[in-house]
Amino acid sequence: MTVLTSLLDSRLFINCGGQQVDVDGNTYSADLNPNGASTFFINKTGGWGYSSMGVSKSTDKPVQFIIQDTCNLTMTAAVLLETAHVAPISLKYYGFCFIDDNYTVTLHFSEISLSKKTSSTIRSTRVFDIDIQGKNVMKNYNIEEAKENANGDKILQYDVSIESQLEIHLYWSGDGSTDYPLNYGPLISAISVVPVPKPAKQPHKLSPALTARIAGSSLFFLALLLFLIWKLGCLGGKRSSKEELKAAELFPGGAYTFRQIKDATQNFNAVNKLGEGGFGPVYKGLLPDGISIAVKQLSGKSKQGIRSEELKSRLNWSTRVKIILGIAKRLTYLHEESKLKIIHRDIKPTNILLDKDLNAKITDFGDAKLNEGEHTHVITRIAGTTGYMAPEYAMRGYLTPKADVYSFGFVALEIASGRNSASYRPSDQTVYLLDLAYVLHEQGNLMDLVDPKLGTDYSWTEASANDVH
């Protein structure tokens, strides 16, 4: 069976029995497979296919399942009606990989098999039924007796709901002529499938009463907001140092909020500045209990964090393994143990938080998706961070929990190696961690990827398992 690799479709056009043609700006696919009896065919694009069944009564001439007649066709879509696909008993067309929506299915017909020169007393009658999505929409359809539209075409149109796959079935139900092989089986010239147009949304007008209520509520909340700002001391002029300290409600101990620090230093007043170092200025502060403190205000250019030096000394091998296992545990919960199975879609170091005991937590679920079943999702909008996305998701949009597992593996590699996903050399060359890991693996030196700051303080078995996986 052909493997379907195309993305979801929202339109389908087939020139049944004919070459590829362009009509009204739409390209109709060619349908030239000559086989008919007991045939199942899938178009090379994988977007549609058909099955044909039945054997005609024996004749001296070979039975043709693709027929053509260019005579006396003058209507607008004549090029679609010059050919047709016919079957003795059953002809079923399939459309694959549709976006779930409501569609208009248009079937084009032209009775080009029956000769116009044949006497009406001996001419045969073709009658067949039509089902769409398993539901009968037409019984005993006779192309010759059908009414033409304004353009001279004989068409049938139906609005149907499609969930992934479309099925159109034309079949002989026993009525009509059976004395000539091609005169009693279903025949069709073209198929088109397009989305049902969405009605334009009318702007919603607010009633005067609702407008008044909204305006009143807005004024109330504005007044409340101004009152709260005033109570916090942000309005009404500059307060004295004593008033600021009272409003802050300082507590004794080693942990203080930023508001408390601002109160203690009089909002980092230049009068209290003690000096300035490489990482920023230092200010004198006074707590309510009379204890003097010194506060360093980090410069924006400083790359020093409040826990960076502490973490460097604490991130030994066992701690790194603990963090990696913690991330794995959180992902297992999201993918398998939670009532709502979730795919995060953006696992990366900046979305991993550590508490005071360095237990890993996953954050930022803005791009998360529900895992709705066991089948591969096809997502039309790719989300995530370049460099951490699984290749099949980044390139083709196929999303499964394995995409998170790939990102987790990349994060684990960064933790074990102490490197970023991309680093830069003085020669302006960019070194990508994944490429470096591949080269070291090929050379048999994968352990060289372990963070050199660890020295020999790591488990060879754990490191090799982490780096390989």
TrEMBL record:
<dbReference type="InterPro" id="IPR008271">
    <property type="entry name" value="Ser/Thr_kinase_AS"/>
</dbReference>
<keyword id="KW-0808">Transferase</keyword>
<keyword id="KW-0325">Glycoprotein</keyword>
<keyword id="KW-0675">Receptor</keyword>
<keyword id="KW-0597">Phosphoprotein</keyword>
<comment type="similarity">
    <text>In the C-terminal section; belongs to the protein kinase superfamily. Ser/Thr protein kinase family.</text>
</comment>
<keyword id="KW-0547">Nucleotide-binding</keyword>
<dbReference type="GO" id="GO:0004674">
    <property type="term" value="F:protein serine/threonine kinase activity"/>
</dbReference>
<dbReference type="InterPro" id="IPR021720">
    <property type="entry name" value="Malectin_dom"/>
</dbReference>
<keyword id="KW-0812">Transmembrane</keyword>
<dbReference type="Pfam" id="PF11721">
    <property type="entry name" value="Malectin"/>
</dbReference>
<comment type="similarity">
    <text>In the N-terminal section; belongs to the leguminous lectin family.</text>
</comment>
<dbReference type="InterPro" id="IPR051824">
    <property type="entry name" value="LRR_Rcpt-Like_S/T_Kinase"/>
</dbReference>
<protein>
    <recommendedName>
        <fullName>non-specific serine/threonine protein kinase</fullName>
        <ecNumber>2.7.11.1</ecNumber>
    </recommendedName>
</protein>
<dbReference type="GO" id="GO:0002229">
    <property type="term" value="P:defense response to oomycetes"/>
</dbReference>
<dbReference type="InterPro" id="IPR011009">
    <property type="entry name" value="Kinase-like_dom_sf"/>
</dbReference>
<feature type="domain" description="Protein kinase">
    <location>
        <begin position="224"/>
        <end position="469"/>
    </location>
</feature>
<keyword id="KW-1133">Transmembrane helix</keyword>
<keyword id="KW-1003">Cell membrane</keyword>
<dbReference type="GO" id="GO:0005524">
    <property type="term" value="F:ATP binding"/>
</dbReference>
<dbReference type="GO" id="GO:0005886">
    <property type="term" value="C:plasma membrane"/>
</dbReference>
<keyword id="KW-0472">Membrane</keyword>
<keyword id="KW-0067">ATP-binding</keyword>
<dbReference type="Pfam" id="PF00069">
    <property type="entry name" value="Pkinase"/>
</dbReference>
<dbReference type="InterPro" id="IPR000719">
    <property type="entry name" value="Prot_kinase_dom"/>
</dbReference>
<keyword id="KW-0732">Signal</keyword>
